[in-house]
Amino acid sequence: MFPQQKDQAQGGVVAVExxxxxxxxxxxxxxxIECARAMYLYNTLEMVTQRAxxxxxxxxxxxxAAMNAVRQKAIFRTSAxxxxxxxxITDAHVRIDYLALTYAGAPAMTEIPAASxxxxxxxxxxxxxxxxxxxxxxxxxxxxxxxxxxTATCNHVQYQTLLSLVSLPLSLPNATAxxxxxxxxxxxxxxxxx
Length: 194
Description:
This protein is an alpha+beta fold.
């Protein structure tokens, strides 16, 4: 074998070895990035639900614009859109429910259906002052991360990777936060509604 051919053969071996090491390195790097992003989402979704519940406890539940603003602020935005580095989570994924504290042998938090919510926040105060355990007295606000395509239940949202070539069979948690209902947007001196 001539010296020139020997150098070319070794150059080919180096190129193959480099490509194998590069593939391994890129696979590990992408894996680390995806794991870090998944952990970020798990932690951030807990914070999103805490913010949503806290903001909704002081927002008028009958005002659609106010509730949209609560959802947007919860995902750290001022307009509708996606959570930063958190696709597919949008403000539409933030579900806010109102809970009553009922007693049927034992205390239980029960979700108040939308049709049974008070006509206004002042009426909620009146109802709660008459009977704090009334099934339509809003005592708590719950915020969850749910799939917006399913309204009957709170389904998990599927994790979406940064690279579409890679898919992980991972569901994001139904992060949940519950807080006491505060003003619910009621203003001082407001009259009851019909």
